Amino acid sequence: AQTVTQSQPEMSVQEAETVTLSCTYDTSESDYYLFWYKQPPSRQMILVIRQEAYKQQNATENRFSVNFQKAAKSFSLKISDSQLGDAAMYFCAYRRSDYQLIWGAGTKLIIKP
Amino acid sequence: DAGVIQSPRHEVTEMGQEVTLRCKPISGHNSLFWYRQTMMRGLELLIYFNNNVPIDDSGMPEDRFSAKMPNASFSTLKIQPSEPRDSAVYFCASSLEVSLETQYFGPGTRLLVL
Asked: Could you write out the DSSP letters of every residue in A18-76?
C-alpha cells in the first residue's frame, strides 16, 4: 500500500527567507502524480503545485518549486521569499492509480515577521 | 469560474439529529469526492463518484452515513443519526474525468455535534 510521510510536524522561517518542506512516499507504481496542498486557517484546501512522475523536470509555480527525486521517492517543496500569507498547514499527497489521494500528516509552516 | 461550493459552511446540531451536507462541483467535472478531516485521523476519503455513480464507498464509517449524487451538479452527504464523534470538517472536491490528477476542494463544512 502507498504511504506518504511528512517528517516535519512544524517548520518556521523568517519572512523573505526560503524554506523547504519534506515529503517521502512509498509505492510500487511507476506512473503517478504528487501534489502539495496548502490549508490556511480558513481551512480551505488549496492546490499549490503538482508533479507528474514521468516528468523529470521539477514543477515550479512562481515562488513555489519542488525537488522531485523519483528513485529516492522524495518530493520536497521549496518556498522562496516567504510571505506572511504563506503561513498554513501544508499537505503532501500521492494520487493512486484508482485516483484516490493518499495524504501525509501535514507540516505547519510559521512565518516570522 | 466558480469553484466547488459547499453548504452550509458551519453546522451545529444535537446528537441524534439528521445532518445533510451539500456540494456543487465545478461545472464540467465528472468526479466528486467527499472527505472528512479531524485532528486525530487527518484527511480521510469517505466516498467518491464518477459520472454520478459511487465508485468506492469503503471509507464511509458506518451505516449512519450515506451519500448521493442525483445529477452532475449536486451531491449530498447525510448523517442520520449524528453523534458527537462525527464532529469534523467535511470537504467536497471535484475533478475532470479526463485528467483526474487534480482535485479541487470546496471551502468545507465545519460540523459540530453536541
From this structure: -EEE--EEE-S-SS-EEEEEEE-TT---EEEEEEETT--SPPEETTEEEEEETTTTEEE
Quick one: CA dihedral B86, A90, A94, B7, positive or negative? positive
- Give the angle subtended at the CA of B69 by the CAs of B43 and B84, to the nearest 5°: 45
CA distance A89 to B38: 14
Summarize pLDDT for A38-76 with one digit per residue, the tens: 999 888 889 999 998 888 899 999 999 999 999 999 999
Q: Tens of pLDDT along B31-71? A: 999 999 998 888 899 999 989 999 889 889 889 999 999 99
Q: What is the pLDDT of residues A77-87, one digit of tens each?
A: 999 999 999 99
User: Cα dihedral sign for B96, B106, B51, A103?
Assistant: positive
Q: How many CB atoms neighbour CB A52 within 10 A?
A: 15
Q: Is there a contact between A103 and B43 if contact means CB atoms under 8 Å apart?
A: yes
List CB contacts (< 8 A) between A45 and chain B: 91, 93, 105, 108
Instruction: Check CB contact of B42 with chain A, cutoff 8 Å.
Output: yes
Distance in angstroms between the alpha carbons of the first and the last residue of chain B:
36
Chain-chain contact of B56 with A100 (C-beta, under 8 angstroms)? yes
Q: Which residue of A has its CA nearest to B5?
A: A44
